[in-house]
Amino acid sequence: MTLQMLDSPALATPPSRAFLARAGQGARKAAARYGLLLGFLILWQVGSTQGWLNATVFPPLHLIFAALWDGLASGALIDDIAISLQRSGLAFAAAVGLGIPLGLFMGQIRAVEQALDPILQFFRQTSALALYPVFILLLGLGEASKVFVIFWATLFPILLATIGGVKEVDRKLIEMARTYGAPRRTVFLRVVLPASIPSVFVGLRLSATTALLLLIAAEMIGANRGLGFQVMNAQYNFQIPLMFAAIFLLALLGLAANFTLVTLQRRLCRWAEAT
Amino acid sequence: MRVVDTARRGEVTIRDLSKSFTLNGRRLDVLRGIDLDIHGGEAIAIVGPSGCGKTTLLRVLAGLEEPDRGDVLIDGAPVHGIGNQRAVIFQEPRLLPWLTVTQNVAFGLEVRGTPAAQAADRARHYIRLVGLAGFEEAFPRQLSGGMAQRVGIARALTVQPEILLLDEPLGALDAMTKLTMQEELARIWREEGVTMILVTHDLEEAIFLADRVLVMSKDSTTPTRLIELDLPRPRDRSTPGFVALRRRLMAEFGLH
Ligand SMILES: Nc1ncnc2c1ncn2[C@@H]1O[C@H](COP(=O)(O)OP(=O)(O)OP(=O)(O)O)[C@@H](O)[C@H]1O
Ligand SMILES: [Mg+2]
């Protein structure tokens, strides 16, 4: 009662009050989430135009976006995006196609897993980038060596995460399925496979990040197209806004890959409240 | 009622059953020549000190372990390995977290080849029986411990086993939930007419639910004993007969 009396003005216009309150809450949430990013961008823009920052190294944002727009409109950057996507996509798909089935198999058969684990650990610890010259020697400086180095680096996170996921499936759940007479195949399809999905996704997200990293490195070392090449090339030619535009596109690519995987994980793992 | 036409079904005969484990290079005789006849539809409780082999006996009966010597016969025929006549309820509910309550309860039937729609129908019937109507679409993480255990019980009942093997099914529950669940187990056992073999460390639970209690011991000099519980049902924990039996069982354990 007291509350209502204190709040009596609200009774006159309740819908607009409620709406304003909700809008205010939404704005506060957005501010908490993106406020710092926005502040950073504003600081950049103001700093660059006011001369607090060296404008040749940190050009104002409108110049960067103009370069981005020009690149996209002329199709030059579109080409770079396409070739970069093709390289990393091909390598990632191959790593997924090989890593997940192999991991599911290896995780289930102890002898295989134990025999292969030392060599896997060894390969994993050998940086793919250090092996890139070897791949170039073997496959030439063309597309094959680039795709292969990305594939190599992305394979191990997926493979190891899948093996780990399968190995960590609760034995008690498997035993439960067996007491209902489930044959091996059914135990695999209905218990082992769904139980390892969250772990597989951890590997996939790690791999996606690695794929992008290796893509940029490979394109910086020996390419004449691609976003990584564009970053280097623009820097050589002192087209700093274009360089930042390419960097921005690379960041966007990473965000998009992560977003796709998180969304997919949410849909597949609704039961686990995906993070 | 099923009790009439299944009078002989669910009979379990245990003949000279022995099982040992090797632990740190030492032989450990866990089960030493156990003999027991369980009638169809009977409720047997197995009690005994920790480590005396209750779980081992239940796992042998379930077909999850092979005995070293001796036989388990169901309805007169020796059995090896897992079989459709038996269902196991473990101490933990062991639900598949990615399946809803209905899907979990239907799991056993589906694994045995029942079409999904029919399995779901049967599942819903047993979900009601264990008092979980309204939670059909919930996921296991949204359930309390007692509710999850009830889902596990419903899953076992859905395959309509002749024999229900329970290993401390209520051991992890709080005292209040436990009392309610004991009442429900008594009701389900009566309604379904199954043979119930229940491992428990709770003597009161044993007296409340069982027709006979098998008391196992840890040292090889003391043989296993079988105690008849001649109490009318439904049982009441406060009757003199109940109290006297509890005192007698506690004396078996050397407690007074
Ligand atoms: N797989 C195994 N390997 C070796 N020893 C085992 C194995 N399983 C059980 N044991 C041993 O057998 C004995 C009986 O174990 P069991 O689990 O049957 O006891 P329990 O009566 O169920 O005890 P509790 O009341 O604590 O559950 C224990 O000493 C245990 O160490
Ligand atoms: Mg036990």
List the main descriptive attributes of the protein structure presented here.
heterodimer; A: 275 residues; MetI-like fold; 12 helices; disordered N terminus; B: 256 residues; alpha/beta; 8 helices; binds magnesium ion
Task: Give a written overview of the molecule.
Chain A is an all-alpha fold and 275 residues long. Helix content of chain A is 85%, strand content 0%. Chain A has two domains: 6-50, no CATH class; 61-274, MetI-like (MetI-like fold), CATH 1.10.3720. Chain A contains twelve helices and no strands. The longest helix of chain A has 39 residues, at 184-222. Chain A is flat. Chain A starts with a helix and ends in a 7-residue tail after the last helix. Mean pLDDT of chain A is 89; it is low at 1-12. With 256 residues, chain B is of the alpha/beta class. Helices cover 35% and strands 23% of the residues of chain B. Chain B has helices at residues 2-5, 54-62, 101-111, 116-129, 145-158, 175-192, 203-209, 240-252, and strands at residues 12-23, 26-38, 43-47, 69-74, 77-78, 86-89, 163-167, 195-199, 212-215, 225-228. Chain B has a six-stranded mixed beta sheet with strand order 6-7-8-3-9-10, sandwiched between helices. In chain B, strands 2-1-4-5 form a four-stranded antiparallel beta sheet, with helices on one face. The termini of chain B are far apart. At the A-B interface, helix 9 and helix 10 of A face strand 6 and helix 3 of B. The structure holds adenosine-5'-triphosphate (ATP) and magnesium ion (MG). The site of magnesium ion has 2 residues of chain B, from helix 2. Magnesium ion binds at residues 54-55 of chain B.
